[in-house]
Amino acid sequence: MAKRTYRFIVFKIEEKQKQVIVEKVGEPGQSYEDFAASLPADECRYAVFDFDFVTAENCQKSRIFFIAWSPDTSKVRSKMIYASSKDRFKRELDGIQVELQATDPTEMGLDVFKSRAN
Q: Residue limits of the ADF-H domain (predicted)?
């Protein structure tokens, strides 16, 4: 993912074709809230999020997060497909620094990003 082309990318597995497609991209100016709102409440997704933060030494930094979104309410079959495809798909992405697995929004809250970014 080229630096700053996108704030985030949401990926979806097309089950019939067994391939991962880009469902949504976020412009660099978009926020964490825009990103969180792009994940469906009851379907699995993969996502990449470019997280900006300021270190204790007051340096601007960013970390590229890979998020495996697998809400409790999604279908079991879907969870299995996403789980079994995750490592292979993640290897195709460049520059991933942190991985998050989330089954509900609190597991990928802004506070979680902050604590995992450092």
A: 1-118
Residue 90 burial (CB < 10 Å; 0-12/13-18/19+)? Answer: middle
Strands (DSSP E) contained in the chain are 8-14, 19-26, 45-54, 60-69, 98-102
What is the rounded CA–CA span in Å between residue 20 and residue 45?
A: 10
Using a 10 angstrom Cβ sphere, with 0-12 exposed, 13-18 middle and 19 or more buried, the burial of residue 13 is buried
9: closest CA among 74, 71, 78, 95? 95
Percent composition of the chain: helix, strand, coil (DSSP 3-state, to 5)? 30, 35, 35
Q: Distance (Å, rounded) from C-alpha 41 to C-alpha 70?
A: 9
Are 6 and 50 a contacting pair, CB within 8 Å?
Answer: yes
pLDDT tens string 11-54: 999 988 889 999 999 999 999 999 999 999 999 999 999 999 99
The length of the chain in residues reads 118
Distance CA 45, CA 74 (A): 10
